[in-house]
Write a structure and sequence with these properties.
The protein is α+β, with helices and mostly antiparallel strands and about 100 residues long. Helix content is about 50%, strand content about 20%.
Length: about 100
Amino acid sequence: MDTQEVIRKQVTDNPVVLYMKGTPDAPMCGFSAAAVQILEACGADNVATVNVLADNDIRQGIKEFSQWPTIPQLYVNGEFIGGADIMREMYQSGELHKLFQK
């Protein structure tokens, strides 16, 4: 499987995927830390995370996949939502909460 196929499988097999630098317990940048905090504040469950620092092919490939230049990147139900700034804006407006309501 090539990198794009791996990413496509990750975003379709998991309801919520966060591509980030580091892990939720040890984020390696402030934007990734903020993204994790926002998801926790929204009550998002079963978030699959991908540490892009562990795989340079994924790190570059996710930028091509989404046509978005920065990390973190959030996907919900296979749809690209955005990076940390968009997540913050959606959180503040209440829009992000709606994606995780049961």
